[in-house]
Design brief:
20 strands; five-stranded parallel sheet; 12 helices; alpha/beta; three-stranded antiparallel sheet; about 30% helix; about 425 residues
Length: about 425
């Protein structure tokens, strides 16, 4: 979660709260003098390229916090707003009749996307169906078990039992006024609420309004379009998930940071930012557009051979390739002379190592909290290496305890992420 070379301050709990994450980013902005460059409460309304594929500028319209319109021109545009903006809200047959009904306690039925989910205590003594097998759905289902009367977790495939007390169901097929029916024909009554952990559609509204990004739900081809396309899961064509290969402007004119999923975002964002900065400063670092398109096609074909449809998985890093992706970006710049040569990988060894025992460490830290021993474990932890050593020690301590007590957990990657 941390940026390279910038660990959390001493005393931060290993499983950080959102307050800790906010404070960390504020400290980062202060450390590197970023506040003067940040304009809060400003909304980019429209962005349009004015020029040719060889030269031009971005005409950007912004609304400030006073409601005034500002127009500015820029040679390059970097979109670093991520992908959690437009909630993906599926509509199920019969849901309106169910929503108009009430539970046996007289509660009005509700369907809520996780974007607006805040406190699990809101669902105290309720029966809840959580939809979606991604990280958000799993986290919400886990939290609700502490407060709700009953939690069902609807996912696409019954892969393996989870380690939290929820009842796994196949995805929702349809609603009746009184029931929720699942894909295997089973049904449940007396459900109070449905929480949708169904992810987000990949939308960039200000590029769409400017005609620079075309929305084609479910598409897997450009159809001869000269513009960038989003099928709501995948934006294409992009070079290495960063630079737009639309022929409307130069290949280094429009960059994206943070589209990737299933990757540690803080270090990956830094790797992408370094790559984007070097290419913006020197466009000749990129091969001609035709060659970049060929490379992209070869990458997509490789994913297909491995059983992944790039137009469906989108910008997710398949087969735990997120660390290699970061190293490849930096090594490319080193080979081209844009960065100094080095025998060190960009991704520190402890980050790769920690990914192998992440879930055991989480279980261990929860047990440490239950024992009230947080301060003892955290004593003297300041540097990145000390944080890394702490995780190693917790992993060994928790692993030994689980073995001693005969506790066996399913492979952590079986019931964690659904494509």
């Amino acid at each position: 979660m941390t940026y390279p070379g910038f660990p959390f301050p001493p005393g931060t709990p290993l499983l950080t709260l959102h307050e800790d994450v906010e404070c960390y980013h504020r400290d980062y902005a202060t450390r590197y003098g970023l506040w003067s460059h940040i304009k809060l409460n400003h909304t980019v309304m429209l962005s349009t390229w004015v020029g040719t594929q060889h030269a031009g500028h971005w005409d950007v319209t912004i609304n400030d916090n006073n409601g005034d319109e500002i127009r500015r021109s820029f040679d390059h545009l970097v979109v670093a707003s991520g992908h959690n903006l437009a909630p993906h809200i599926p509509v199920f047959p019969g849901q309106n009749a169910w929503l108009e009904n009430t539970s046996k306690e007289g509660r009005r039925h509700e369907i809520l996307h996780s974007l607006w989910y805040r406190e699990p205590t809101r669902y105290t003594n309720q029966t809840v169906v959580v939809v979606g097998g991604g990280g958000g759905g799993i986290d919400i289902a886990s939290q609700l078990t502490l407060h709700a009367r009953k939690v069902y977790h609807a996912i696409r495939t019954l892969k393996f039992p989870t380690t939290v007390p929820v009842e796994i169901k196949l995805q929702i097929a349809y609603f009746t006024p009184d029931e929720i029916v699942f894909a295997d024909g089973t049904s449940v009554r007396d459900v109070d609420s449905v929480v949708l952990g169904t992810g987000y559609d990949l939308r960039i509204p200000f590029l769409e309004r400017g005609g620079e990004l075309i929305v084609k739900p479910g598409s897997n081809q450009t159809d001869g379009s000269l513009k960038l396309i989003t099928n709501l899961r995948y934006m294409f064509p992009l070079h290495r998930h960063i630079f737009s290969l639309s022929p409307s402007y130069p290949t280094n004119a429009l960059a994206f940071i943070g589209l990737n999923e299933l990757v540690p975002h803080a270090p990956a964002d830094i790797a992408q930012s370094i790559y984007a900065t070097c290419v913006i400063l020197n466009g000749s670092l990129l091969a001609p557009r035709k060659e970049l398109l060929r490379q992209l096609a070869a990458h997509e074909e490789d994913l297909m051979r491995r059983g992944y449809d790039p137009y469906y998985i989108g910008h997710r890093m398949a087969d735990n390739s997120g660390f290699d992706y970061q190293d490849d970006l930096i090594n490319t710049l080193r080979v081209k002379g844009a960065l100094p040569e080095s025998d060190d990988n960009f991704v520190e060894a402890w980050r790769r190592e920690a990914g192998e025992y992440e879930f055991c460490v989480k279980r261990g830290w929860r047990r440490i909290e239950e024992l009230g021993d947080e301060d003892e474990w955290m004593k003297g932890i300041e540097t990145e290496e000390e944080w890394a050593d702490l995780m190693r020690r917790i992993n060994a301590w928790q692993r030994d305890w689980e073995m001693e007590h005969g506790l066996v957990f399913p492979a952590d990657d079986i019931y964690t992420i659904e494509y």
